[in-house]
Amino acid sequence: MSKEARFDLRGDSEKKDIIQRAANVSNQSLSQFMIEAAYTTAQLILSDRNHFVLNDDDWERFNELLDAEPKDIPELKRLFQRKSVFRN
């Protein structure tokens, strides 16, 4: 993996010391440790926006809704007949 992105961070010395100690214990450089920790935390934060868990009843209801015939919504039809504001 190439290292083409640069991260510039500022923080207080107490936090840096703790992070440096954790990096040392993990046998990683400070940069490796911080990037890996930030990446792991980012994945965790974003995971609830990408994955969700349902119990059996809710999963069945979810699938019923996905399989149902679409509702006729006249307002939505009119909206999609308009020229998009995102296209020239």
What does this structure look like?
- This protein is mostly helical and 88 residues long.
- The chain has one domain (13-81).
- Helix 1 crosses helix 2.
- The protein has helices at residues 13-25, 30-50, 56-67, 74-81.
Would you spell out the secondary-structure blueprint of this structure?
Blueprint: H1 13-25, H2 30-50, H3 56-67, H4 74-81
Helix pairs in contact: 1-2
Q: Give the percentage of residues in beta strands.
A: under 5%
Form type: elongated
Helicity, as a percent range? 55-70%
Continuous helix count: 4
Short descriptors:
elongated, 88 residues, mainly alpha, 0% strand
Condensed summary:
Helix content is 61%, strand content 0%. The protein has 88 residues and is an all-alpha fold.
